[in-house]
Amino acid sequence: MNKLLKAAVLSVAAAAMVLPTFGSAHADHRRHHGDALAAGAVGLATGMILGGAIASQPRYSERVYIDPEPEYYEPRPVYRPRPVYRPVVVESYGLEPWTPAWYRYCSQRYRSFDPDSGTFIGYDGRSHFCTAG
């Protein structure tokens, strides 16, 4: 309905521009009456064509969404539980744990020996309690 209204308004405006030429052409030159009518008809047709073309223009332009370059997010840190040292029952191989001889033996035997916890890091990457013997 809105397009029809726009076309009608533009047609009336085009006709309003052409119609005053009818009176002056008719009054001044009675013999050119046919030329004035033809010019009016051409102006009216041109106004209707232009009005229809303007009214039929789309109201919106189709927009295409382009996803921007994704931002890089660092991965969340991985939390691993800390090892819990539990008292270990040690079979006696001759040296009692926590004695000076035991400390001496374990520190000489294992380079990764930790005297505070009594453990060493094995080839498997895990902590093991030193059993001297």
TrEMBL record:
<dbReference type="Pfam" id="PF07886">
    <property type="entry name" value="BA14K"/>
</dbReference>
<protein>
    <recommendedName>
        <fullName>Lectin-like protein BA14k</fullName>
    </recommendedName>
</protein>
<comment type="function">
    <text>Has immunoglobulin-binding and hemagglutination properties, and can bind to mannose. Essential for virulence. May be involved in LPS biosynthesis or polysaccharide transport.</text>
</comment>
<keyword id="KW-1003">Cell membrane</keyword>
<keyword id="KW-0812">Transmembrane</keyword>
<keyword id="KW-0732">Signal</keyword>
<comment type="similarity">
    <text>Belongs to the BA14k family.</text>
</comment>
<keyword id="KW-0472">Membrane</keyword>
<dbReference type="InterPro" id="IPR012413">
    <property type="entry name" value="BA14K"/>
</dbReference>
<feature type="signal peptide">
    <location>
        <begin position="1"/>
        <end position="27"/>
    </location>
</feature>
<feature type="transmembrane region" description="Helical">
    <location>
        <begin position="37"/>
        <end position="55"/>
    </location>
</feature>
<keyword id="KW-1133">Transmembrane helix</keyword>
<keyword id="KW-0430">Lectin</keyword>
